[in-house]
Specification:
By secondary structure, the protein is an alpha/beta fold. The protein has helices at about 15-30, 45-50, 55-65, 90-100, 165-180, 195-210, 220-230, 245-255, 295-305, 310-325, 335, 345-355, and strands spanning about 1-10, 35-40, 70-75, 105-110, 130-135, 145-150, 155-160, 185-190, 215-220, 240, 265-270, 275-280. The chain has two domains: about 1-105 and about 265-355, Isopropylmalate Dehydrogenase, CATH 3.40.718; about 120-255, Isopropylmalate Dehydrogenase, CATH 3.40.718.10. The chain is built from twelve helices and twelve strands. The chain has a ten-stranded mixed sheet with strand order 2-1-3-12-11-4-5-10-8-9, sandwiched between helices. A two-stranded antiparallel sheet has the order 6-7. The protein binds 3-isopropylmalic acid and magnesium ion.
Length: about 350
């Protein structure tokens, strides 16, 4: 197969980790007889520096003609004081909206080789856990009406959470289908005891549950869910939730795997074209030092092969190679606790060697 991949390297460690993933994708192409072409576009702080805008039009246009998009990370202290609309993070929201990527898949699983990294008590994670968070990505409070005004107490600002039936139905459908292919258990997380938007969310999820009798579906309030994730993470299979709750819970879930440098994500819409990125940030403190863990981005490339290109064998080859390198004891600095660490390029070389 021939596929065009847009590269959004971004800021901080973004360029290093994207380049690692490109080397892995090139090795996969060579091994399985595919042809991947890569076209870089600017995003985030580096785009602000070069063009004055965090998300230039050429970037959006390039992503929309690509077969898929691989992103590193955006942001850094240099751009932190810019007004909201010019911040690098705005580019992320912009590209998600422009590509209509309403689904964000964030898997959080405990790697047996990294059990020692998990901050939870041993008996809590004895059985391991493997959670797929399905986060709504183009609606809710991130995109609702917002503003500043004068009110009863003077200056005030507001953001609004609004979900339409259409938006809830389409994300719930993805979640039910995902659960059907996994452990057949879905937890829908909301705040229906307080929020009207959550009550609509819950009602629609219940309606749809009738179409999926093979999936055990339950609701959970978000405050309880935050607690349950650290009390008994093994109870979760697939989680579906709103944009903001998903943002928060996916950081919590990543932390209990002990290794935020390991977690990939996929943002998907109605077409095969997706945007794949590690869930960690741009780590400006270690940028350019060949220290970053490239695994989350490499696993994001594996998700691209699986979800955008339907290349399950190729995706599994990457995941297995990563597993073998970790099982052999190699660690980047984030996982080495001051002990022997391999560099970004060394980790990539090790994975490439296992792939061949
Ligand atoms: C994430 C990030 C983004 C989000 C920020 C950087 C806009 O936290 O992808 O989880 O909130 O969606
Ligand atoms: Mg986040």
């Amino acid at each position: 197969m021939e596929k065009k991949i847009a590269l959004l390297r971004g800021d901080g460690i973004g360029p290093e980790i994207v380049d690692s993933a490109v080397r892995v994708l090139e090795a996969v192409a060579a091994k399985y007889g595919h042809k991947f072409t890569f076209t870089p576009y600017l995003i985030g702080g580096s785009a602000i520096d070069a063009t004055g805008k965090p998300l230039p039009e050429e970037t959006v246009a390039g992503c929309l003609v690509a077969d898929s998009v691989l992103l590193g990370a955006v942001g850094g202290p240099k751009w932190d004081t810019l007004p909201g609309d010019l911040r690098p993070e705005k580019a992320l929201l912009g590209i998600r909206a422009a590509m209509e990527l309403f689904t964000n898949l964030r898997p959080a699983k405990l790697y047996p080789a990294l059990k020692g990294e998990c901050p939870l008590r041993e008996d809590i994670v004895a059985a391991g856990f493997d959670i797929m968070i399905v986060r709504e990505l183009t609606g809710g409070i991130y995109f609702g009406e917002r503003g500043q005004r004068w009110g009863k107490y003077g200056e005030e600002a507001y953001d609004t959470e609004c979900y339409s039936r259409m938006e809830i139905e389409r994300i719930a459908r993805v979640a039910f289908e995902t659960a059907r292919k996994r452990g057949k258990k879905l937890t829908s997380i909301d705040k229906a005891n307080v929020l009207e938007s959550s009550r609509l969310w819950r009602r629609i999820v219940h309606e749809m549950a009738e179409q999926y009798p093979d999936v055990a579906c339950a609701d959970m309030l978000v405050d309880n869910a935050a607690m349950q994730l650290v009390r008994n993470p093994a109870q979760f299979d697939v989680i579906v939730t709103s944009n903001m709750f998903g943002d928060i819970l996916s950081d919590e879930a990543s932390q209990i795997t002990g290794s935020i440098g390991m977690l990939p994500s996929a943002s998907l819409g109605d077409t095969a074209r997706g945007l794949y990125e590690p869930i960690h940030g741009s780590a400006p403190d270690i940028a350019g030092q060949n220290k970053a863990n490239p695994i989350a981005t490499i696993l994001s490339a594996a998700m691209m092969l699986l979800y955008s290109f339907d290349m399950a064998t190729e995706a599994k080859a990457i995941i297995d190679a990563v597993d073998r390198v970790l099982a052999a004891g190699y660690r980047t600095a984030d996982l080495a606790h001051g002990g022997d660490a391999v560099t970004t390029t060394e980790m990539t070389d090790l994975i490439l060697k296992e792939l061949k």
